[in-house]
Structures are given as structure tokens and as C-alpha cells.
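Example 431.
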Amino acid sequence: MKVAVIGAGYAGYAGLAAAVELASRGMSVTVFEAARELGGRARRVDYHGMALDNGQHILLGAYRETLRLMRMVGADPAELLLRLPLQLVIPGRFHLQAAPLPAPLHLAFGLLAARGLTWGERLSAVRFMSAMQRRNFRLGNDIGADKMLAMHEQTGNLRRYIWEPLCVAALNTPLDTASAQVFLNVLRDSLAGSREDSDMLLPLANLTHLFPEHAAAFIESHGGKIIHSQTVLAVKAEAAGFSLEMRSGSKNFDQVICAVPPQRLAALTASLPELAEARAQVGRFGYQPIYSVFLQYPAATCLPRPMIGLYGGVTQWVFDRGQLNHEAGLLCAVISAEGPHQALDHDDLAQRVDDELRATLPGLPQPLWHKVIAEKRATFACSPSLERPGQVTPLPNFTLAGDYTAGDYPATLESAVRSGVKCAQLILESP
Ligand SMILES: Cc1cc2nc3c(=O)[nH]c(=O)nc-3n(C[C@H](O)[C@H](O)[C@H](O)COP(=O)(O)OP(=O)(O)OC[C@H]3O[C@@H](n4cnc5c(N)ncnc54)[C@H](O)[C@@H]3O)c2cc1C
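Predicted structure in complex with flavin-adenine dinucleotide:
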């Protein structure tokens, strides 16, 4: 059987993961990728002779499929990811770290020992998590995350230092327009799972190396093909199978896994009436940006820990790439979701982040250079009750993979990987 995967998103997860699964079972798989670099939105970006990333990523211990596939293709998570106990640290303001105890005590003790909360707030957070646990993290009807938190009195410092930063980081959507149900899904699997599930995993290598390079080698060693710099212009249904139209001509396949980002779905499938509903659902999506601000300081500069939070300005999280990727003195600030930072030009934004860092870390030297990577439509806006297209489509032998397809999770590496694996399973089960 000839299978085409369109889009080698990293993480590709969606596309590559599916291909990897198929390749491991001896099918003929060809991956078509428009870009030169593998990885899609989670890829290496070369700059100043250094391997930056399209955006700093963080994985969770709960990303089981991602970790499973990494192991399968020979990318050892223990070597490639720094595993840290869950921690939210805003120097001088707030400190929460999961306790070295089995679940659920790791979180309960972590919350009770948190600095920057009153006793009332600590107990309220523990009560909220227990209440959610009792209802299995399910809401009858989805509502805004903000409203759900207010209903459970998760306001003040709890909202400010825990729930808002977690929601914005995980859903890439402002709290007042974010889906409470998807946020609860993330809390269920991370904070309320095992202690290992709540661990934070920080890449120690660039994102193309972390998985796509290993996956590509694995696919090729199993007879699959990866064709870079090859944009598929359209997919057409034939009497048997599909033809993929490209500038260089067309090619026929029995099965197609379409793993392009949601913005590309409509153009690619325009001649497939069976995809009309999926196109309509995606057409109703809103999108949210993620900005990554890389600031290179003199090599001796480092943060007190690999990742810290900032509060009160535009900067949300700062990662020390010296401690992670051997890029001494390089800090990467991440700003998820929409906000006032979008009105600044890149130089002013870098200056603003530097000022905010300086307020927290007095004595910081002047940066030597900066690079801002703005992904204006980084992910879909994860709003309440959002309908997402399923992986199965009404068109036989044509499946959809990608972080935007139906699933429990917001747009993440794990949702992309899960969807890719699901498509692979559907192909294996097809008659
Ligand atoms: C800045 C940023 C930070 C993020 N941080 C995190 C994080 O910390 N943790 C986390 O879990 N997730 C994070 N995410 C989300 C995560 O990166 C995405 O959910 C995931 O990479 C999506 O993978 P995908 O395969 O669905 O799509 P994509 O990565 O978009 O892959 C689609 C691929 O299809 C290719 N393509 C498009 N059109 C065509 C065509 N016509 N023909 C051939 N190829 C085509 C594209 O070039 C691309 O390579 C972040 C995203 C961004 C942008």
C-alpha cells in the first residue's frame, strides 16, 4: 500500500509520527514537506551560527505518546530532555514546586508549601483540585476558564501566579476566552496524574534534532521516503486512490494523511467535497500568536534556574539556553497569546524584555544581540466548545492529522503526535 503524508511537522509529529508508525510496520510511506527544515512549527532556526528554535518549547511528563515515539525512533528522552519537578517560580514573588512525594501528595504539599500565597489561598487551591478530581475534571457545559476559576474562588494570587500562567502557556489563549474544559483536561493529566506526569521536560537539543531528525533516519531505514522542499498544491480523488499535484508533476497514492497546519487545509482540499465540513470548522477558528525573544548576553550570564517566570510586564517565561542547549549567555523569553507586546516593533520588544529582566536580575550586563521570532498564528485559539475536525473524514482513505484535530488537548506537540498515531492506526485497520 502506498501512503502519502503531507507535512513533516515535528514534532511532526503529526505527519512524521504517523509515517514512523507505518514505516515500522513495513508500508511504503512518502512524506512531502514544503520546507527545507523538518519540524514545522517546532523546528530549528539557524541564526548567528547558532541553532535557535522557532520557539522555546516545553513538554510535560504526561506527553506519553511523544515520549513513546521518541524512544521508538531512538531519540532517548533521558538524554534529550531535562526532567524537572513541576515548578512555577517568579523570583521575589512566588515559588511553587511539586514535593518529592507520590501523587496526589506531591501537588497538595507543593501547594501548601508555596511561597507568595496566603494560607487561605493555599487551602483554596487544594480544595479546587480535590473538587475537580471528584468530578473527574469534567464540566457539563464548557465555559470560559476565567469564569470557571471565579466560580471556585480561584482569584487573586492563585489566578495571577498559578492558573493564568498555566492556562496561557498550555492553551495559548487568554484566560477569559480559553476553554475551561480543555484547561481541566491539561490539569487532569499533568497536575492530577502521577508525579512523573507533572514533571516539566525542557529540550536539551534544538527541536529538529529532538525528534524529526531521529524520526527521518528511522523512516528512511525502514524504506520510507522524505521529500523536502516539495509543496503539495492540491489533492485530487481518483477512481482508485488520490493524486497529489505538485509543481514537478503528480503522484498517485492509495492513502493520504494530511498533516498540514489548519490554515493550509482549505487550499489543499478544495477539490474534495467530502472535506467541506472540516474546512468549515477550521474556517471558524481564531488564532493566537507566540513571540520568542532571544537575547544574547555575555557568556557568563545565567538565570538562577533553567526557567523562571516574570510578572507584571509583557514577559511571561524566560529560559536559560546556556543551561539547556549549551548556548552560554543566551536567554529566551516567551510571550504566549495576544497582548500589548504585539504593538511594539522587534527592537522595542527586545528592549522591553531586557528592561523587565533587569528589574528582576539587577546587574545584568547589556545584551550583545537579539532576535525576535514572532509566530503570529502559532496555534488556534482554544475557545470553549470549539468544534475541531476528526482524524476520520467522510472520504475513505483520507485522514487528517495535526494539533488542531479533535482531541482532549490544546495545540501541543502531544496533540499533534496523538493525531498522527491515530491516522496510522486507521490505515492499519482499513480493509
Ligand atoms: C512558538 C511556538 C511555541 C510553542 N510551544 C509549545 C510548547 O511549549 N509545548 C508544546 O507542546 N507545543 C508548543 N507549541 C505547539 C507545537 O509546536 C505545535 O502544536 C506542533 O508543532 C504542531 O505540529 P503539526 O504537525 O500539527 O503542525 P506543523 O508543525 O505546522 O507541521 C505542518 C507541516 O506541514 C508543512 N506543509 C504545509 N503546507 C504544506 C504543503 N502544501 N505541502 C507539504 N507540506 C506542507 C509545513 O511546512 C509544516 O512542516 C508551540 C508552537 C509555537 C509556534
